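To the wet lab folks,

You asked to see what we're planning to order before we commit. Fair enough. Below is the target structure as tokens, and below that is the sequence we designed to fit it. If anything looks off to you, flag it before the synthesis order goes out.
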């Protein structure tokens, strides 16, 4: 992968990381607000519980994506970005455009998912 492409991926991943960090920060404040609000009746409590569960699921998803983005930035730093972590072949540019934090080429990803 050439330096220009790598730099573009790095810029995009850093923007993604910043966005995720802001989202996680907002989720924390939202959960605190929900926890501090007094629920008057059963319907309010059920609604607050559902909102809390959805917020927790969204936060877990954002934390996982942040972990993947940080790992991709680490691979940029160590010079292995764009290489499949399984077979060592180059990950296709279209795949990286769609999923810049991809760790595996399409073939290996399908093998991994098929083994589940």
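Sequence we intend to order:
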């Amino acid at each position: 992968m050439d330096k220009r492409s790598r730099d573009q991926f790095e810029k995009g991943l850093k923007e993604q990381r910043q966005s995720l960090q802001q989202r996680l920060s907002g989720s924390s404040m939202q959960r605190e607000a929900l926890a501090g609000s007094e629920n008057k009746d059963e319907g309010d409590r059920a609604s607050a519980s559902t909102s809390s569960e959805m917020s927790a699921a969204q936060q877990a998803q954002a934390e996982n994506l942040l972990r993947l983005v940080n790992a991709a930035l680490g691979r940029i730093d160590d010079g292995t970005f764009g290489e499949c972590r399984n077979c060592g072949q180059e990950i296709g540019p279209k795949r990286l455009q769609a999923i810049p934090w991809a760790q595996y080429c399409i073939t290996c990803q399908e093998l991994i998912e098929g083994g589940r």
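Structural context that might help your review: The chain has a mean pLDDT of 88. The two ends are 31 Å apart (CA to CA).

Thanks,
Computational group
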